[in-house]
Amino acid sequence: MTEVVWVKPEGAEIANVSFGDGRMSATGMAIGGDPLPYRLEYELTTGDRWVTARLLVEAHGDGWRRSLELINRPEGEWTISARAAGKVKMPPPGGDVNELKGALDCDLGLSPLTNTMPVLREGLLEGGQQEFLMAWVSVPDLRVTPSRQTYTFVRRDVVNYSSPGFTRDIVFGTDGIVEDYPDIGSRVRP
């Protein structure tokens, strides 16, 4: 198990990550302040080849709480369960599973961790370019929407990430975990 800490422009994230036989599992916690102060906790598990199997997320702040369970069954069928309590001006959590057909992975907003799965599965630290459809989870509202993303090899430790209106070069460590994702988070090393 590897413990990873990222410092973010609006907070921090800590995750305990385990790898084995093309699979990953992680538990993590993040704090942030935009668009309002929040604390977020998550559990992530993948199946074979680092394909998302389940993401459980809980977010809460002053007077509100939300939860989301996103499951990707082996046959590629997604399910979404979401709950919200309290009054806060944010979109409702959850989304339309029909929009996620063809997606293999989740992408937890503002978390460097979920960039690991497609990069490892497609060998993008060795070369190549790949376009993906992701189940993108907005933070802290936990809204799930489809997101088209392209990952392109730049050099052995750098992959360019782009989605409509957003492009960044992401630096990865030899373990496949993000070291530096500009404007999202930088890994803290002891």
Distance between the termini: 16 Å
Query: What is the N-to-C succession of helices and strands?
Result: EEEEEEEEHEEEEEE
Q: How many β-strand stretches?
A: 14
β content, as a range?
over 45%
Let me know the largest β-sheet.
Answer: 14 strands, mixed
Structural class: mainly beta
InterPro entries: Glycolipid-bd_prot_put
Protein name: Glycolipid-binding domain-containing protein
Pfam families: Glycolipid_bind (PF06475)
Short structural description:
The chain has 190 residues and is mainly beta. The chain is 3% helix and 57% strand.
Describe this structure in words.
This is Glycolipid-binding domain-containing protein. It holds the Pfam family Glycolipid_bind. It comes from Actinomadura barringtoniae. With 190 residues, this protein is mostly beta strands. The chain has one domain (2-86, 95-187). Helices cover 3% and strands 57% of the residues. It has one helix spanning 116-121, and strands spanning 2-8, 11-20, 23-32, 38-46, 52-61, 64-72, 78-86, 105-108, 129-137, 144-155, 158-163, 166-172, 178-181, 185-187. Strands 7-6-5-4-3-2-1-14-13-12-11-10-9-8 form a 14-stranded mixed β-sheet. Strand 13 (178-181) and strand 14 (185-187) form a beta hairpin. The relative contact order is 0.17. The mean pLDDT is 96.
